[in-house]
Amino acid sequence: MDGANHSVVSEFVFLGLSNSWEIQLVLFVFSSMLYVASMMGNSLIILTVASDPHLHTPMYFLLANLSFIDLGGSSVASPKLIYDLFRKCKVISFGGCIAQIFFIHVVGGVEMVLLIAMAFDRYVAICKPLHYLTIMSPRMCIFFLVSAWMIGLIHSVIQLAFVVNLPFCGLNVLDSFYCDLPQLIRLACTDTYQLELMVTANSGLISVGSFFILIISYIVIIVTVQKHPSAGLSKALSTLSAHITVVVFFFGPLIFFYTWPSLSTQLDKFLAIFDALFTPFLDPVIYTFRNQEMKVAMRRVCRQLVSYRKIS
Fold first, then answer.
1. CB 274 within 8 A of CB 250
2. Residue 16 Ramachandran class (φ > 0 left, ψ -120 to 50 alpha, else beta)
3. Phi/psi of residue 91, nearest 5 degrees
4. Rg from Cα positions in the chain
5. What does DSSP assign to residue 174?
6. What gap in Å lies between CA 276 and CA 73, rounded to an integer?
7. CA separation for the pair 178, 78 (Å, rounded)
8. In whole angstroms, what is the distance from residue 57 CA to residue 59 CA?
């Protein structure tokens, strides 16, 4: 068919999560509460780490940066989801869709590297405690942070370089509530088989590879803890369990998205909701639930905020 007969797509239409008004109402309340809670929880972690000198350590430095990334991650798709729930026509411009994909992959890439950095931090703290402050120096922490942002940006730009110029000639309906590469590529009016392989190789294999590297590193740490049990190492193992839980929650949906992109739509949507709403909400809960030091510092910050508000 002659390309001149095709209409150029300028916007995409989301089918959303449900057409039932009752379900939309439940989703609105549910997603709004999770979004607000994740923003407050992650903001509180950042404020606590920044204001408490006792938390100016490599572990909490990385944790504060992870919370900052979670703030961005929860804001990429969640506000649009909440805004669109009661709209009959859920649309996003082509530029808005590309921007959403860009930020999703930047945030994902940065968070992936930060989780690896946090695993390395725990490895050094448990397996080489006498050299911890030497290895995890401020320079090393900054190196991890800069590397995370560079890798996230490079990863996202590489993904979009092959997508932004794809021809979209008519089909513009996405059975989702946000834009991402697997769904968008299927709408292109050209053969996208090689491009889908590239996405699988770039995002899928990186996710799987990073996940197994992290799991193997945690197994090494656990074996070390079992060989040298002590009160301090037991506390470190408690912290380690929080890291492992966050890693599973973060990488689980990613592996399904990018290694098995042809799963059922309903499963895709469930995993997308989990990734967009639950993970940013659960991260601060998991990291503070079993961390007495962080809980004490948070209570101290909250009391200071209440006192300041009363004085003002």
1. no
2. left
3. -120, 155
4. 21
5. E
6. 7
7. 9
8. 6
Give the start-end residues of each E strand in the chain: 11-14, 90-93, 173-174
Amino acid at 52: D
Percent of the chain with pLDDT over 70: 91
Alpha-carbon distance 196 to 201, whole Å?
9
Dmax (CA) for the chain in angstroms is 73
Q: What is the pLDDT of residues 114-156, one digit of tens each?
A: 999 999 998 898 888 889 999 999 999 999 999 999 999 998 9
Q: What is the pLDDT of residue 200?
A: 76
Average pLDDT over residues 173-180: 87
Closest of 180, 175, 186, 178 to residue 156, by C-alpha: 180
Per-residue pLDDT of 205-221, as tens digits, reads 888 888 988 988 888 88
How far is the C-alpha of 293 from the C-alpha of 76, rounded, in Å?
A: 31
Please answer whether residues 101 and 160 qualify as being in contact, where contact means their C-beta atoms are separated by less than 8 angstroms: yes
Asked if 244 and 152 count as a contact pair (C-beta separation under 8 A), the reply is no
Buried-state track 178-208, b at ≥16 Cβ within 10 A, e below 16: bbbbbbbbebbeeebeebbebbbebbbebbe
Q: Are 301 and 51 in contact (CB under 8 A)?
A: yes
pLDDT at 310 over 80: no
Question: Which ranges constitute the DSSP H helices of 52-93?
Answer: 58-84
d(Cα 152, Cα 300) in Å, to the nearest integer?
Answer: 34
The DSSP code for 57 is: S
Tell me how far apart the alpha carbons of residues 76 and 63 are, in angstroms, rounded to a whole number.
Answer: 20
Angle formed by the axes of helices 279-289 and 58-84, nearest 10°:
150
